[in-house]
Sequence to fold (310 residues):
Amino acid sequence: MQAPEEAGASGSSPRPKDSFFYGGQAVIEGVMMRGRNHYAVAVRVPSTREIRVQRGELQSALYTSRFWKLPFLRGLALLAEQMHLGMKSLMWSAGVNAGDQDIEIGRREIVASMAVALTFTMVLFIGLPLLGAGFAVRRSGSFWFVVVEGLIRVALVLGYLWLIAMLKDVRRVFQYHGAEHKTINAFESGWHLDVPSVRRASTLHPRCGTGFLLVVVVVSVLVFSLVAIFHPNWFWLVVSRLLGVPLIAGASYEVIRLMARHRDNPVVRVLLLPVLYTQKFTTREPEDDMLEVAMVAFNAAREGEEARVA
Fold:
């Protein structure tokens, strides 16, 4: 997400020339917000309804080194950030909710679940599209093979999101995702960060990770079309998909960043439509108390930024 660095958290200050891409993520019964140097996670405790907050400073080279802010490399940094900060925030929110229900969740259980999820992701979103394209197109690695593979991957991603959205717990996470988007959209618009104002904001944002996935698929079709020139066998098809992840992630991040910066351009506005509407799968209209949690997380991250400046 993007928002002015020095606009007041109350939202009435004009947008400065210098701006920073604020980010966020829905977690279990809460939201994580990331600033330039600090992050904050706010979680609603189910039994007491209190909002518990965890703040932290981003000190590793991933966040502080100029190297990881270079074009294309910052896309890789984003992926690493999701693995590090995203999982850290998710684990903390899970711990808060488990503690509230007297359930113990250890590091071993978390690592095991992550390994299973990673294996499932590789099989579902890399293996199955390759196999499906192999059945549909005789010439493996050709341009049409790559196109069919990409279409199957899009269908699998959207179908998976549609199915899991039927689960009550996942639906609540998607509501918190909507609250995260609304909060940053309201801040970017210079609105006061209160429930009535944030309620008016959109649940869609051009730099959302869901839209990023769609851009990744489009870029992967272009990249793997170049690979198809060499007519790779099945071994090199699989290897190219694995090795191509960093290149595709870096290029896709630059594409979506460019579109977000020029979102008022009529052509870009049209190109952004599929990016925005894929977010309908992963966002839902939040309840007022969810908006409160998102605003607490955002303000806590902002307080960290302001404290560092002071």
In short: Residues 1-18 have pLDDT under 50 and may be disordered. The radius of gyration is 20 Å.
